[in-house]
Amino acid sequence: MNSETRGDFSEIPILDVSGLYTGDPDAVAAVAETLRGYLENVGFLYVAGHQVSRADVEAVREMSKAFFALPDEEKLKLKIDKNFRGFLPFAGSTIVTSSVAKVSKPNQSESIFFMHEVAADDPGALAGKPLQGPNQWPDEAVLPGFRATIDRYVAEMSELARKLVRAISISIGMPPDSMDRYFEHPTTFLRLLHYPTQPAEEGLFGSAPHTDYGYITLLAQDNVGGLEVKNKAGDWIAAPPIPDTFVMNVGDILARWSNDQFVSTPHRVINRSGRERYSQPFFFDPSMDEMIEVLPPCLPAGTEPKYAPVLYGDYLMERIDKNYHYRKGTAAAPVAP
Question: What Pfam families would the database entry show (predicted)?
């Protein structure tokens, strides 16, 4: 990594990942090499050349619009539960754990969360383990085809994410399957977000400046825009929608795993477009039970890791408990930095 160029960007790069689908090791390695530079120096990129169809992306967006158009009493039937699944009403989160800004005002959005599916009789759910339980779904009579549309999309996004995990492993200097075991039972989130247009008020954001918690995020945007990424000069660089791409970014756990070889870059959303904005970030993270410690190739000889090992579930729950209003009073013990 060139420390002089790290964070020095004025636009978000685009990477064609079609080589990951070929089965050709050389093509995969070429994608991984370019990916490494983007993750080290920017932490953000547009992913092009994937095999998730435009129709499926748009189908999720249309279902999202239909859900948020429902009366509040209908949406509140699915109010977010202890397992972090369901509808989060408008202004339901304030990012108090942000490491890049002092945030005091709630995010100007409403959303609904779908995580990895866990049956009600799963041993983890029966034992009351954190975030282990079934998703909450709109009634089929109210929104026909909603669950099938979401399930299909999550399966496609998970396939893409697994290919990116392997590319990241190669980029670090490890065999492609080195990190597969951490994602045998991944922690996944599909969050459907609705951002009404917001007033020009100091300190008010659709999503306040923050870094993501997990491994990688893959975001499908509508055509409204509003996402901005912070470079090392402190400038906020627009990440406008580009058709048939996802915005990919490094989360804090990948940064920790890589000993900060990869950068978890601050970003925010401001929607002053005069139009409603809809987005659908997909978060692909390791199992809650996985211990995250610096990977050996990311630790030069004679140096100490920047981060102590941390159980991913503990790390995640501390942030969820602090940032989401409905969880106040359930905060976990602090996680070592």
Answer: 2OG-FeII_Oxy, DIOX_N
How far apart CA 124 and CA 133 sit, in angstroms, is: 8
Residues 285, 215: contact at Cβ < 8 Å? yes
Exposed, middle or buried: residue 199 (CB in 10 Å: 0-12, 13-18, 19+)?
exposed
Q: Which two tokens stand for residue 199?
A: 């007033």
Q: Measured between alpha carbons, how far is 102 from 96 in angstroms, rounded to an integer? A: 7
Beta bridge partners of 88: 111
d(C-alpha 66, C-alpha 74), whole Å = 12
How much of the chain is in helix, strand and coil states, percent to nearest 5?
30, 20, 50
Write out pLDDT tens, residues 61-83. 999 999 999 999 999 999 999 99
pLDDT of 224-248, one tens digit each?
Answer: 999 999 999 999 999 999 999 999 9
What pLDDT score was predicted for residue 236?
A: 97
User: What pTM does this model have?
Assistant: 0.94
Q: Give the chain's largest Cα–Cα span.
A: 62
Domain covering 14-327 assigned CATH 3.40.190.10 in the classification: no
Burial per residue of 151-161, b for 16 or more beta-carbon CB atoms within 10 angstroms, e otherwise:
ebbbebbbebb
**Digit-coded pLDDT (tens) for 28-50:** 999 999 999 999 999 999 999 99
DSSP 206-244: SEEEE--SSSEEEEEE-SS--EEEE-TTS-EEE----TT
Alpha carbons 335 and 327: distance in angstroms, whole number = 17
Q: Which helix (H) or strand (E) holds 15?
A: strand 14-16
From edge to edge, which strands make up the β-sheet containing 227-230?
A: 207-210, 267-269, 227-230, 236-238
Cα–Cα distance, 7 to 41 (Å, whole number): 5
